Amino acid sequence: MSKKAIIIGSGLAGLASAIRLANKGIETHIFEANSYPGGKINSKTIDGYRFDQGPSILTCPEYIEELYTLCGKDFNDFETVEQATAFNYFYEDGTQLELTKDSEQVIREISEKLGEHPEQVRKHLQKAKKNYQLIAPLFIEKSLHRWWTLFGKQLAQALLHLPSYKLFSTMQKENQGFFTNPRTVQLFNRFAQYNGSHPYRAPAMLNMISHLEINEGPTLPKNGSIQITDSLVQLAKEQGVIFHFNESVEEILLENKTVKGIKTKEGDYFADYIVSNMDVILTYKQLLKNTKQPKRTLQQEKSSSVIVYHLGIKKEFPKLNVHNMLFSDNDEAEFDAVFDQKEIHESPSLYLYISSKINATDSPVGCENWFVLLNAPINEGQDWKQIVADKKKYVLQKLSDLVGEDITPLVEVEDHLDPLQIEQRYNIEQGSIYGNASNSRFSAFYRHPNFSKEIKGLYFASGSAHPGGGMPLALNSAKIACDCLFSDYSL
Q1: Which of 184, 273, 289, 334 could form a disulfide with 179 if both were Cys (CB 3.0 to 4.6 A apart)?
Q2: Is 249 helix (H, G, I), strand (E, B) or coil?
Q3: Domain co-membership, 133 together with 199
Q4: Which DSSP string corresponds to 293-307?
Q5: Residue 479 domain-assigned (yes or no)
Q6: Is this model's pTM higher than 0.85 or not?
Q7: How far apart are CA 135 and CA 132, in angstroms?
Q8: What digits encode the pLDDT tens for the residues 132-183?
């Protein structure tokens, strides 16, 4: 008799888990509360303007390629767009950096525009690359909670370079030690945003994230981020995965501390294995109410959230590229406001993403679809309706200043996403989009493992489980969870 698996949620890690399980010959079902797959990586079209709802930057496409290879598919079918400029950075005094995928160009640009010594920039980028190559195979691609999977030559090499990780320093302190211009420090501090952390508190080890964006550069799917979801759904269906949409899981059924299945409004479904792609905290609070709760996980500081404005603009602005960052001059105060005061600083940085520059069909001819993101605190009952309205005025003014023209009358379509909506739409505790924050050197070890230590047959694959939030980490979360399952059951 064939084994059966149930995946709770069709986010990125849920889809990847389903592909891996079905590829092993396991009958696999995905239960999704929404009417569409992809979790935060979905799409919305309003009057001819299409907006990606979630992440806008794809790094480490090799993790998606791995799934294609597993299924015997050619990754060349996953079409991407080559672009000369990887990222534009704008500062309040008018300084602009245009960074490409050529690391030597990046070094020249930062040196000439921000006055840094070229060798210091080169040294920083080389260190980020080296640390990533040493750490990723161990702490990102393997379980930290099954120590025997770590032992070997790779662990020895990683431990030999332990001093270079600056475990007792922060991202900001290390960057300040490298660079003379506070704006260069701010540029490299911003990579804490990749997992919703505070760069003045997060460990210096996280500076390796800059390797993915600056050394390797982002990958642009031809049809926007929704292409990732569409491609993985297609792979899943080809492997025989069965989707159940608009069917929310109400309970994980157990017998003698072993999974037996799930309960939904439609009835009970039985399975040998369950992988929760749902937020770890809410998995316990909502689906495992009568089981032992992981207190350490539940008590951890949460990552930040976001407010996103989707704007349909009746004009094109060649000055702006696909990925743009508009910095304020209030770096530390901005992050303090988000994590301590639980509010948005009066003049936050903006992350402006223009997807129409990737695919012209995403907006009407001569128009642009803008994705504007603000760092925001988690939902603790704030008046988000008022906050969204107030910050919209600030956003429109800053964007108008940037392009040299009042864009308010050019806004033809608008929509937004706030922490409360994120919490409700994606069933994420308090709208924390990256799970727990990484604001201490022990954060990586406090993330929930990809398996349950108490319940046999229960696994976790999501941005709130190990190794953390963001597309590359979510894909690895799925791989680790499935590897643990395969090992446990000798599959």
Answers
A1: 184
A2: strand
A3: yes
A4: --HHHHHSPB--EEE
A5: yes
A6: yes
A7: 5
A8: 888 888 777 777 767 656 555 555 455 555 555 556 689 999 999 999 999 9
Q: Which domain holds residue 155?
A: 121-216
Reading the block at residue 41, the tokens are 């990586």
Helix 118-135 × helix 171-178 angle, to 10°: 150
pLDDT at 428 over 80: yes
Q: What is the CATH number of the domain that holds 447?
A: 3.50.50.60
Same domain, 147 and 189: yes
Q: If you average pLDDT over every residue of the chain, what do you get?
A: 90
The residue whose two tokens read 């105060």 is 333
Query: Does residue 105 fall inside a structural domain?
Result: no
Residue 367 in contact with residue 379, Cβ under 8 Å? no
What local confidence, expressed as pLDDT, does residue 111 receive? 97
3-class DSSP state of 151: coil
Residues 206, 273 within the same domain? no
Instruction: Tell me, yes or no, whether 429 lies in a domain.
Output: no
pLDDT at position 444 over 60: yes
One domain, residues 127 and 276:
no
| Angle between helical axes of 384-403 and 419-426 (0-180°, round to 10) | 120
Q: How far apart are CA 274 and CA 302, in angstroms?
A: 25
What are the pLDDT digits (tens) for 259-283? 999 999 999 999 999 999 999 999 9
Give the whole-angstrom CA distance, residue 312 versus residue 45: 10
Number of domains in the chain: 2
Question: Considering the domain boundaries, does residue 114 fall inside one?
Answer: no
Task: Determine the length of the chain.
Answer: 491
**Cβ-contact 13, 474 below 8 angstroms:** yes
Q: Using DSSP, state whether 144 is helix, strand or coil.
A: coil
Give the end of a domain, one of 199, 216, 233.
216
**Residue closest to 209 by CA, chosen among 175, 176, 168, 162:** 175
Structure tokens at 19: 């592909």
Please tell me whether residues 207 and 253 are part of one structural domain.
no
Single-letter amino acid, residue 178: F
Please state, in angstroms and rounded to a whole number, the distance separating the CA atoms of residues 369 and 355: 6
Domain boundary among 197, 216, 235: 216
* Alpha carbons 271 and 455: distance in angstroms, whole number: 14
Residue 214's nearest CA partner among 123, 125, 274, 83 is 125
Tell me, what's the pLDDT at 1? 65
